[in-house]
Amino acid sequence: xxxxxxxxxxxxxxxxxxxxxxxxxxxxxxxxxxxxxxxxxxxxxxxxxxxxxxxxxxxxxxxxxxxxxxxxxxxxxxxxxxxxxxxxxxxxxxxxxxxxxxxxxxxxxxxxxx
Amino acid sequence: xxxxxxxxxxxxxxxxxxxxxxxxxxxxxxxxxxxxxxxxxxxxxxxxxxxxxxxxxxxxxxxxxxxxxxxxxxxxxxxxxxxxxxxxxxxxxxxxxxxxxxxxxxxxx
Lengths: 114, 109
Fold this sequence. Notes:
Number of strands of chain B: 11
Mean pLDDT of chain B: 95
Low-confidence stretches of chain A: none
Largest interface: A-B, 24 and 24 residues
Radius of gyration of chain A: 13 Å
Strand content of chain A: over 45%
Order of helices and strands of chain B: EEEEEEEEEEE
Oligomer: heterodimer
Largest sheet of chain B: 6 strands, mixed
Largest sheet of chain A: 7 strands, mixed
């Protein structure tokens, strides 16, 4: 069955370190998204991609970057981790940006920045 | 800027009860509205998607309605079961998907 996976599932890092969160989908979807989920804010969009070599900033993109070199993967990099980036990160994918678009979510990565 | 609000934030009901979760949004220029379920420590699972031209969608014991002009949606769960315990999130699709903070539902046996 097609799926979307994230790794690692849990990560502890120190302030200032570079961290990369992996996202891999086997749906063959064009669109991929990264969200963070925090109490009091719900899910907020960090970055998104509509295809290979395409990346776009979302609502809370400062301090994060992504690259899309193939259809299946959209890694999220925290350039210099900050305590404010402690959160649960979700990757999602969808086939097309239409009125019937449904996003499929990965299980999440819980990141703690000390 | 689109804002999505869900009321109540938490709800506890006895098994078998019918219940309604509410979602409101500020900008009616949307393509669709979705209801998701999130279990603790897990990702989101799409339950129902209502296109902007539709009024409601049904799946099993779930029924979602959409009143785009008033910026409201409801999720109706019939004959609730303990397995329905989860957080339910509403999201509206405009230029991007905007989420509410969710309603945490507990169904007690």
